[in-house]
Every structure is written in C-alpha cells, then in structure tokens.
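Example 5.3 — Ion-translocating oxidoreductase complex subunit D
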Amino acid sequence: MFLSQVTSPHTVRHDHTRNIMRRVILAAIPGLLVSCWFFGLGPLFNVLLCSLFAAGFESLVLKLRQRPIGFYLKDYSVLVTGVLLGLALPPWSPWWLLLVATGFAVVFGKQLFGGLGQNPFNPAMLGYVVVLVSFPVDMTSWPAAHAVTFSGGLSHMFAGTPWLDGWSQATVLDSLKNNQGLTLDELWDGYTGFGWLSSRDSELVNLAFLLGGLWLLHKKVYTWHAPAGMLGALFVMSLIFWGGNGSESNGSPLFHLFSGATMLGAFFIITDPVSSATSTRGRLLFGIGVGILVYIIRSWGGYPDAIAFSVLLMNLCAPTLDYFTRPRTYGHDKAKRGFNTEGQ
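Solution (predicted structure tokens):
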C-alpha cells in the first residue's frame, strides 16, 4: 500500500524572534517618551548607552566563543536587554553604572549560560540587582521631575558631578517606606509632585507602559496570564494590608499598581519567554508569585521597589512550576508525570 507523506495540519506562526523583539521595543517607546517629558533626555541617554554597551559586550563574548556576531545581533534580543535596563535605571545615571549593569546582564546573565534561550534568569533584572546592591547611593538618587537641566544631567552622567539641591528627591515608594508617623494625607502634602494615585511622573509613566503592554497583548506577543497574575496578586495583597490612610498604612491598591516599575515589570519583564514559566497555568502562577513578593518586599523588606528581586526569585521557581503544571498529554485523561511503571 502506498502511503502519501503530507505535512501535519498544524498552525504555524511566522513571528520570528526578531519581529517579537522589535514589537517589544516599539511598545516601550510611549513609556520612554513620558519619562523624557518628566526627566529630560536622561532616560533616552540611558537607553542609548545601555543598548550600545549591550551590543559591544555581546559582540565581544561572541568573538571569544567563535560565534557569528552579525547572526546573533540581528535577533535584537540584546537590544531589548539594553532598552529595559535603560528604562529601569535612574535617569541620568553615571555612565560607568550603566556599563557595569549592562556588562553583568549580557555576560553573566545571558552568554555565560549559552546565549538566548538558555539563560535561567532575566538578564536585565540580574544586571539591575548587581548595581543596586553594589552602588545603593547612585541607584537611589532619582532626579526630581522637571528639575534637572540638560547640562546638569550630562555633568552628572559623564563627569560625576553631584546633584544640586532640589534636583533629586526620594521616590514616592521610598517616602512611604520611611514614613515617620505621618498620615498618608500629611505625607503626600509634603511630597512635591504627588498626583491622583502616586507621584505624577510615576503614574503617567506606568500608564504609558500599560498601554504598550496592552498593545503587545493585542499583537499576541504573549498571553495575559503572567501580567494578570502579577497585577491581580499585587492588588489583592495591597487591599488586604492597606490599613486606610493612617500612619501605619502601606498604601492603597491603586497606589501600588501605578508606583515604581509595576507596569514595566508586568508587561515587559515577567513576560520573558525564556526565564519565566512556559505552561499556561505556570505563567499565571509565576505572575502571582511575583505580585506577592513585590508587595512583601515593598512593605516589609529593605527595598522600596522590588520588581527585580521578585522576578529573580520566581525565575528559580519556573522549572518547578512547569513540572507541576504540564498540560494534559494528547490521548490521556491526565498528564503523566515521571516514569510509567506499567509495562516497564
């Protein structure tokens, strides 16, 4: 009997890595533009320098590994790492801080494990945590909105000139964490630039990243499970431990959703297909775990914004989540785990 060989009727997606990375970069542009509105060209300089450093470190390591440099640079994955790092680091960060963060992200967070697709940790968040732990003063020196001049920002970035009085201030999350017995109304009355839910710059930047993330969902770059899990868990945790507007309050749910790097983390960090869980339920649980850890570290930990630490901790849990949330095998009533002892 002649059996014709035909292809299976499987759906094939033509979204290659390069196209996906391009869309991620495009979706981050609104957040970058809003950040530049508040902090001048500092965020743009961050992104450009981090992207340049990332491409340089990637090329150097590929040269040492005797791999084709152009082939790997064309997937734009290292460019996404540079963009995300530039957006996460304080505007007008010193150039050497950007260099250290990017170098550690690319060399130790990505290439040390074999390159794209083999890294267990999110490279951008690994680089961010290294400089946060090593240089806490520089990482907590955020400029005040509309306060830094172009020349002053360049001097701080390339010459190490300290910020002038009034050019920098504590972030809204840091102010809440170090609250000394004031009610929230009293605390925010003394905070320059507080908006409806959080600081004006923070809530508008988060809104811009939210819009970019929704566009990525519309383009089916990733599924809704991880972002919804993280934002839902953060909302529930902050609702349970809110405490009203008293001096012991940890902030309202909407305050936490639109403060710090919440939306950047929800739509651009935890959706990394390599270092997060791969199964549908696993991605949902991954997001929930990140949301819970973010609130715990923000409220009772030592750092006001906790996206990076939470993501790295959940990266460790991703293989376990995938193991226990494997989808049902085709043709079986239940997913088979381990070895089938029948018929061995």
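Remark. Residues 206-323 form one domain.
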